[in-house]
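Suppose you are handed only two things: the residues of a chain and a line of SMILES describing thiamine diphosphate. What would the bound structure be? This form records exactly that question and the answer produced for it, so the two can be stored side by side and reused later without any lookup.

QUESTION INPUTS
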Amino acid sequence: MTVESTAARKPRRSAGTKSTAGKRTTARKPENSEPELVQLLTPEGKRVKNAEYDAYVDGITPDELRGLYRDMVLTRRFDAEATSLQRQGELGLWASLLGQEAAQIGSGRATREDDYVFPTYREHGVAWCRGVDPTNLLGMFRGVNNGGWDPNGNNFHLYTIVIGSQALHATGYAMGVAKDGADSAVIAYFGDGASSQGDVSEAFNFAAVYNAPVVFFCQNNQWAISESNEKQTRVPLYQRAQGFGFPGVRVDGNDVLASLAVTRWALERARRGEGPALIEAWTYRMGAHTTSDDPSRYRGDEERVAWEAKDPILRLRRYLEASNHADEGFFAELEAESEALGKRVREAVRAMPDPDHFAIFENVYADGHALVDEERAQFAAYQASFADAEGV
Ligand SMILES: Cc1ncc(C[n+]2csc(CCOP(=O)(O)OP(=O)(O)O)c2C)c(N)n1
Ligand SMILES: [Mg+2]
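ANSWER OUTPUT
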């Protein structure tokens, strides 16, 4: 083994011992230490003070807190239903958000109606906050359409599978918003793995140089399929922003209040013309990458057990109960509402009509294209060949 490859296997330790001798910096925290993050609600459900971010949630009412709880519970219920539907053969694939509810609901509820959201394929909680009907998220995963909703209907772009590309789309859109003189903001979601894509770095630089009103919201769920985030970066991801010339913050992504507060801060400064910000939401993908993945092949159970203790829904429930903001009636009603949502989703998916086989060729280009015409003709001939076989 070469010296280089040994160094590459232990990047943080060697970088830390060399450059931090005699001085402590947050960039070189030793491996396995707790990351520094903005937290307003502890895993035990205790509200902790934060001089910088309290102001963004100070006026929050018990009703709004119950609303955040409801959002997270219903999103988790919808997600579980979609996983079951995949197991029953009703969906081809599903990418679960289990564990990431607080990061998504907190940030999603921070957006304003005129803001524009660019999601990955896992932002079911953000879609919920934007008012996209959850059943519309499932058409693509059933293979009956290529999207399922009008992006301009809720300012929520279509799910994007090409990792990191939506960071550039969001930045371009935000540059347009600024040119229009509007005071809306744009938010781009992506994962820890996406941070290794060139598109994301390009987006950071364009956004910084053009002072674009875009918030980069990275859900660091610790894994990019089977690659741990140790393989994505030598410094905490939020610190990358500094090199591009804008602020970066790490927030407890399992804390819905902190996620709401930090995202409000970032969106408000973007609206004021103060440019981009990066939020790294520190969270965990509790389930498999998708229903096609088996995480037991690359990670141990201890990790999941440790994160279970930080469950985003449980901690808000503890807080609501301890502060007498919710009673048994509220939780029972929500349980019934969750079951009704599951049933509605199930029935809607099963009732989705199969598309016309030629629909795939529609809307590829606004004005049509010779290559698409050729492919359509080839497919028609292929289909016609079955008609012959049936006649035999
Ligand atoms: C450009 C590109 N490369 C590779 C893939 C395959 N791929 C799909 S998901 C994924 C991992 C993404 O990890 P992360 O950004 O952390 O998001 P997460 O799935 O954890 O939410 C990869 C590599 C892809 N879809 N697009
Ligand atoms: Mg990830």
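WHAT STANDS OUT: Residues 357-391 form one domain. The chain has 15 helices and seven strands.
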